[in-house]
Amino acid sequence: MNRFQPDTEIELTYPESTLVESSPIYRRRHLQIREVRDLIEDPLTPEEFLRRPLTQRSRYLLTAYDKDAKSWRQFYPGSSKEFMTDGRLRIALYERGGRAPKKIISRSFEPTRRDRIALARMIKEMQSKDFGRLELRIIPDESKVLQQQVDPGTTKVAAPKHASAQRRQAPPVTVPSGMTASSPLATPPF
What we know:
By secondary structure, the chain is an alpha+beta fold.
């Protein structure tokens, strides 16, 4: 169930920078939600992902009015303290207009600079391939949800080899002053 609804207000403790591996400084945001995009039902296109590959992403993308900044912005609630997620992503194939993946075709990519660059490279390589009537999309890796939504008879999302396996935490990276997740990169890393 989606806990975010259009035309509602929400308060989030949200980072000033949503770059992967950044040391976030959080501040309270008072938001008026206009739109909610579920990235499993309406996934990112390769072009959308490649515009900002180093952004920390989660399942829901909110378009909301920030009452304190007095501006419209987009927010991934999974980056907030209240709804924190691990930010892993996968590549999937969808039918045109489909609301569930037909097939998951990549491993899980961690929210690290190295993995996001690897994901960007893989996406660029795959864009030239012919997937028939299926389209390349980037989705959050919410394995439990994906296992329920991948069509029967297609590739299932692989479970971890060891249930007790822990995800390695990358050391924080200092973000240059004034740089945000939407800041253009001087030289693309891929």
